[in-house]
From TrEMBL:
AMP-binding enzyme C-terminal domain boundaries: 424-495
GO molecular function: ligase activity; phosphopantetheine binding
Protein's name according to its UniProt entry: D-alanine--poly(Phosphoribitol) ligase
The UniProt record lists the keyword Plastid: no
Length: 511
């Protein structure tokens, strides 16, 4: 079992392993293998290059426009080495969205892949790959010590916002370190272990993968996008011992008939998060990896990756059987407290963030320590409860069983693990010329949740609307279908009848 020393920052986790295991593999990505010493040196070079690009100034916040590359991971560590806050950007996201994130987060500089997208983000864009071909960077030995401490921000992630604007979620070092102190020993990784990295850096489970590996001396193994969709082949070809992904990957593998019994004999630990994990999915994965433990993780970005976890018993005969057919989300991590308010899960503790980047987003999202509504005009403290918007119940036995997720209180949905506020997509549609109103609903498909939309208005064409949405929203937020209605149906109160729209979109052709 891996032991965990006291570490105040994300960089501390990596630095301790780099000192203890310099010759062990730290990263495999894009056909390249870096040891801990090699990755540390790469991060130092990128850090020095950032300082040179800023004329000797240490950055406050660093954007990262890189994916599945040495630059992505060395850049992440370089920002942490400098005590800066990492702001991941989506390489497949529209340039306008990335630019909006850069402005909102007050980014000083963006580190980008050598062959990545080019866009005017309003701040310097630096490509370390190209820099290596130019003049020497600042001397690595001249870099100052990382000045960050536990109360500084480790990273800022932007999630979908119900007002039509992404919400910035700042996570402090003490939040993410509290998470790692709980999960790293639980992972039972270490030198020789090989952890998958299926998540993009804009999705917070990527932080768990990186630092569960780098905090224990294990290797982080990054699949190509095609390999993510063929998990059995990836696990076996690359010797993966620890897996982490969204549950829909199981469904995709099952459709390819790849999850045959004992097809992943070397897998020791599997974690699923980002979407509900069904018992059917868990059984299929367990039969393919019978020697491995399976965990279901729960946690919005505001609560730092996962804050509740449930590990299924080794024997399927002992598995719980919630009425909704999903694996429980379990119990809170050490240092985390939960409170049920009319069925809504509310959480506080060491992993809870300190409030949104824009304080106006805090309205309606917190409760006071005694459980009453939070007044945004008052100071937000660590004792306040964060309202997740998720409905949960206790499993069997009713009073003491593990918590089970049973739905949402709002229109938020999960698409490929990403959190989506359908209101943000609707707002983007309504802003298009010719659109009078719009409704976006989520439909359940065999490969996960899919978005579909209905709109009304004269002159608006689905193809033009889809192209406009792709210029504004990430691909996972663009509805699969856009259906024109002469007028959206109304209920007795004169409001849009969302249930009727949902029925019409779920069963087209049935009137």
């Amino acid at each position: 079992m891996t032991t965990v020393a006291c570490r105040r920052t994300l960089h501390d986790w990596f630095a301790a392993s780099a000192a203890s295991y310099p010759g062990h593999t730290a990263l495999e990505v894009g056909g390249e293998v870096l040891t801990y010493a090699g990755l540390a040196a790469a991060a130092q070079r990128v850090a020095a290059g950032i300082v040179r690009r800023l004329d000797g100034r240490i950055p406050h916040r660093v954007g990262l426009l890189a994916s599945r590359s040495i630059t992505a991971y060395a850049g992440y560590l370089a920002a942490q080495r400098l005590g800066a806050t990492v702001v991941p950007l989506g390489t497949a996201f529209p340039a306008a969205r990335n630019a909006a994130v850069v402005r909102a987060a007050d980014v000083d500089l963006v580190v980008a892949d050598e062959d990545g997208p080019s866009a005017d983000l309003g701040v310097p864009l630096w490509r370390p790959g190209r820099a290596r071909q130019g003049q020497p960077t600042v001397e690595v030995d001249a870099l100052p010590p990382a000045p960050a401490d536990g109360d500084d921000l480790a990273y800022i992630l932007f999630t979908s916002g119900s007002t039509g604007t992404p919400k910035g979620v700042p996570v402090r070092h003490r939040n993410i370190c509290a998470h790692l102190e709980h999960v790293v020993p639980r992972c039972d990784a270490g030198p020789g272990a090989r952890l998958s990295q299926t998540f993009d850096l804009t999705f917070d489970p990527s932080v768990l993968d990186m630092f569960a590996a780098w905090g224990s001396g294990a290797a982080l193994v990054v699949p190509t996008r095609d390999e993510v969709l063929t998990p059995v082949r990836f696990v076996n070809d690359r010797g993966i011992t620890h897996w982490n992904s969204v549950p829909s990957v199981i469904t995709i593998a099952g459709r390819l008939r790849a999850l045959t019994p004992h097809s992943m004999p070397g897998l020791r630990r599997s974690m699923f998060c980002g979407e509900p994990l069904t018992l059917q999915q868990a059984r299929a994965w367990k039969r393919a990896a019978p020697a491995g433990a399976i965990e279901n993780g729960y946690g919005p970005t505001e609560l730092t990756v996962t804050c509740l976890t449930y590990r299924l018993p080794p024997d399927e005969a002992d598995w719980p059987a919630p009425a909704n057919g999903t694996v429980p989300i379990g119990e809170p991590h050490r240092g985390t407290e939960v409170h049920l308010r009319d069925g809504e899960l509310c959480v506080r503790g060491a992993q809870r963030f300190a409030g949104y980047l824009d304080p106006s987003d805090n309205a309606g999202r917190f409760l006071t320590p005694d459980g009453s509504p939070y007044d945004p005009a008052t100071v937000l403290t660590d004792a306040h409860w964060y309202r997740t918007g998720d409905r949960v119940v206790r499993g069997e036995p009713a009073a003491t069983g593990p918590l089970v997720h049973v739905g949402r209180l709002d229109t938020q949905v999960q698409v490929h693990g990403y959190r989506v506020e359908t209101a943000e997509v609707e707002a983007a549609l309504r802003e298009q010329p010719g659109v009078a109103d719009a409704v976006v609903v989520a439909l359940t498909a065999t490969t996960g949740t899919r978005l579909v939309a209905a709109f009304s208005g004269a002159g608006a064409e689905p193809d033009r609307l889809r192209a406009a949405l792709r210029e504004r929203l990430p691909g996972y937020m663009v509805p699969d279908t856009l259906t024109a209605f002469p007028a959206l149906p109304l209920n007795a109160n004169g409001k849009i009848d969302r249930a009727a729209v949902h029925e019409a979109l779920a069963h087209p052709g049935i009137s």
